[in-house]
Specification:
globular; Amino acid/polyamine transporter I; single chain; APC family permease
């Protein structure tokens, strides 16, 4: 008598991210949308003009050139580091595990700071838009909470869904600025078109330091291209192309748009106009050269620009959370991927809960959504991401010294070292002009600046703890 064993079915593999979903354009949309070009131009560029004068456009070009130099070594290393950890994986393999673990914590704080603070901007921008269009005043908290739910849903859906949404929103927000540019160019500006913004006498002035600080901040998030490596088509080509496209587009578009704003008032009048009404500068310009309807549309598109930025950062944060869960540093549950949408939905839910807690906490404390929630949460996030760029640039030559490769010395040594020096100077500019970003007291500014080094040091301590208590996690980290 024979006995037949029952058939057993091997468990299916857990779902992973949807590979091959994103092309160069898709990744570029994520990166450029995170920078929120319309919001940066209408909300921040007038302050740069007021502080730096008509030479402000050159500051954005200089910042773009610096980050292009950084991208040379960064994208070269991306061909050799293929995991999903982006910054911290690069830093781990170049500077060692303790620095990499410190960078991982800094990345989570940096990206969360950049996103969560913007919910305050969403609330205040929507308030301004509703008041401008309808004369009504609305509370900001319900708007921010609705935004949290909307962004959660966008991150919950598939990555290609997010790319399509961002593509539409980005075309809309850049389109309104192109419309302004067309009106100014066709009518010849306020007093004719001038290239004086790029003359050395107008660029090499004391206020340029402040312009550069604002300009570097305007590029924050451009490096997130590598976060999408696992979902990219032909990542060895797609990721570098998207990085260079993002840097080139932002640098040229920012400089051109600021120059257009200057032409709309004239070299002699724009600094006074920007100083007296920075929030209204772009709205006045587009009303004059296009029409009042375009100013109303710009109000609406600023809100959609903020939403696009939030969705882009949310997707980046989710993938960092997924990578750290795979490393064993964050709870394993954060590494779950939705079986149908192939999104890191648990990490997205956790990030949304954190965002809601911060937003409600600031509201309960009676804080202003712009002056406190946005500026106080965004600023340490911005400094943290710039510090990560610096560490990643520094990691490149150390990484290539340790491996056998065929990359040229310009890509592996010269460009990364130059980028390290330039980024160090950029961080110094931001830190020494921190009051321009926050409008806060010296004590608050000191605390905001201290967040990044404190988090990094905490990461170093965590690395030592992991080395002692969980050596298997420590040894595999960032590999």
């Amino acid at each position: 008598m024979s006995v037949t064993s029952p058939k057993t079915t091997a468990p299916s593999a857990a779902p992973g991210l949807r590979t091959g979903s994103l092309g160069t354009a898709d990744i570029s949309f994520f990166v450029v949308s995170a920078a929120a070009p319309l919001t940066v131009m209408a909300g921040v560029a007038p302050i740069a003009i007021a502080l730096g004068g008509i030479g402000a456009p050159a500051g954005y070009l200089l910042a773009g050139l610096t980050l292009a130099v950084f991208a040379v070594g960064f994208t070269t290393m991306s061909r050799h580091v293929t995991g999903g950890g982006a910054f911290y994986a690069y830093i781990t393999q170049g500077l060692g595990r303790p620095a990499g673990i410190g960078a991982a914590l800094l990345a989570m704080i940096g990206y969360n700071g950049m996103e969560i603070g913007v919910y305050g901007l969403l609330g205040s921008a929507t308030q301004d838009t509703v008041h401008a269009l309808f004369g009504a005043d609305i509370p900001w908290l319900p708007v921010s909470l609705a935004g949290l739910l909307l962004i959660w849903y966008g991150g919950f859906r598939s990555i290609d869904f997010g790319a399509k949404v961002l593509g539409v929103l980005l075309v809309a927000e850049t389109g309104i600025l192109v419309l302004l540019a067309g009106g100014v160019l066709l009518k010849g500006g306020a007093h004719g078109l001038s290239a004086a913004s790029f003359a050395p006498d107008n660029v090499l002035v004391p206020g340029t330091a402040a312009v550069l600080a604002f300009a570097f901040a305007a590029f924050t998030g451009f490096e997130s291209t590598v976060i999408y490596r696992r979902e990219a088509r032909d990542p060895d080509r797609t990721v570098p192309r998207a990085t260079y496209i993002a840097v080139a587009f932002l640098g040229l578009f920012y400089a051109f748009t600021v120059w257009i704003a200057i032409q709309s008032f004239g070299d002699a009048a724009v600094v006074k106009a920007a100083g007296s009404d920075p929030a209204g500068l772009f709205f006045t310009a587009i009303t004059t050269f296009v029409g009042g309807w375009a100013a109303d549309l710009m109000h609406v598109l600023i809100v959609t620009s903020v939403i696009a930025s939030l969705l882009a950062f949310h997707n980046a944060i989710n993938r960092y959370g997924l990578a750290l869960a795979d490393e064993g540093v964050l709870p394993r549950a954060w590494g779950r991927v939705h079986p149908r949408h192939r999104s890191p939905y648990v990490a997205g839910a956790a990030q949304t809960v954190l965002g809601a807690a911060v937003v409600i906490g600031f509201w309960a404390a009676g804080a202003d959504p712009y002056n406190q929630l946005l500026l106080w949460v965004n600023t340490p996030g911005m400094v943290g991401l710039m510090a990560l760029q610096l560490l990643a640039a520094l990691a490149v030559p150390f990484f290539f010294r340790r491996i056998t490769h065929t990359e040229g010395v310009v890509r592996t040594v010269v460009a990364p070292v130059a980028a390290t020096l330039l980024l160090a100077a950029a961080i110094w500019l931001v830190v020494t002009h921190i009051d321009l970003f926050t409008g806060a007291s010296p004590l608050v500014n000191t605390l905001l600046i201290a967040v990044s080094p404190a988090v990094f040091v905490l990461g170093l301590a965590l690395a030592q703890r992991l080395k002692r208590s969980r050596p298997e996690v420590y040894e595999k980290f960032g590999q």
